[in-house]
User: What shape does this take?
Amino acid sequence: MRNFMTRQRAISAVSGFVIFAVIAYFIATRKTLAFDTMIREFIYHLRNENLTAILKVITYMGNWQTVTLICCLFLLIPKVRFYIGLPISFTAILCTIIYKALKVSFQRARPDITLHLIQQGGYSFPSGHSFTNFVFYGLLIFLIRQKLKNKTIANTVTVLLSLLIFLIGFSRIYLGVHYPTDVLGGWALGLCLLMILISGVRFLQKS
Assistant: This one.
C-alpha cells in the first residue's frame, strides 16, 4: 500500500469515504431534513436575477457535454493526449458509472420541482455534478501542475479550477436541484476517488 499511496493521500481517501458513508447513512434513515432545510433556506435567500444567470452558466460547465468537450480537446492535442487526455477521459467515464449506480441504489428524490430554476430529472443523491467535477477537475489540476514549469500559472490554474469545483456544487443547491447533503456527499466521495486516481497515476509514472 505504501508503494501505491502516500500516507497523506491514504488518510484523505479514508476520510472522504467515511464522511460519505455517514452522510449516506443519514440519508438512508431520513435524518438530514433539518440540516438540509437550514442550508437551503440560507442559499435560496441569495437568489436574484443576475446571480441566477451566472450560476446557470457555471452549472452547465459541469455538465457531461462540457466534460466530454474538454476530454476531446486534450485527446486531440498529441503532446498531452496520453499524459492528460486519456487519464481524464477514463476518469469521466468511471465517475459516471459510479454516481449513476449510487443514484439508483439510494433513489433519493430531488427537491420539490417548484424550487428548480433549471430542468433536471433523475435521482438526487449523490450529486453527479459535484462528484464528477471534483474528481475530474481535481485530477486535471494535479496533471497540469506536474506538466507546467511556471509555478505562477500553475497556481492560477489551481485556484481557478478549485473555485469552479466549489461553485458548481454550490450552483446545484442554489438552482434547487440538489440538497446540500447531495453535494457534500459528492465532494466527500470525490475526494476518496481522486486520491486513489492520483496515486494510480503516480504509480504508473514510476513503473
Q: What stands out?
A: The mean pLDDT is 94. The longest helix spans residues 78-106.
